[in-house]
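From the pipeline queue, job 12 of 40. The input is one protein chain; the requested action is below.

Action: predict structure.
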Amino acid sequence: MTITLKAGSTAMFTGDSITSFYRHDGDDPAGYPLQAAGRWCFDHPDRPLTWLNTAHAGDSTADLEARWHTDVLAARPDVLTVLVGVNDVGNGRTPDEFAATYSRLLTPLAGTPLILVEPFLLPVTTVVQTRRGLIGEPERARWREALDPMIDVVRDLARTHGAALLAADRMFADLSAQAGPEHWTDDGVHPNAAGHSALAEAWLALVE
């Protein structure tokens, strides 16, 4: 599915820390929404867009739902991109709970072009310190087992709601086989500059 963006359209991104990275300052590399916006503006100067980002670090589907009307529906985006799921795993939500909440988010947006991004986890081997403690291979293996059903939910929701699917988990699995997962992320969850560039390219491939 390809989504057409007309001049004057509003493109919104929402989700968790992977998407909110768009708002980082200083020396941090630009997140995928900002990279996509920059490329779009360079390639399509005749089609200026409004770019919005309402993502918050740490958000799960429940957090999105609490602010959905204010952060998303009130803005009436012409295309909405959603990336969420890893924090639902971290918060112990079941796939059924995840599916029910996510579906409630999308239902009021019938008729709005949607891009649903698969949550993903790359098999890095390094041990990293996070707010949840030290994360190594055993912890990632447990996360992987819990995340797979969430990814299936996103794929099913994309079909049900007629959304474009950005198959990020599949993409990063293929990229990791080529260059190694550490080329794309430090902790397996948050993309680095190369990882964000890959997401931006995949997003741009879904729009015209």
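Job complete. Residues 22-27 have pLDDT under 50 and may be disordered.
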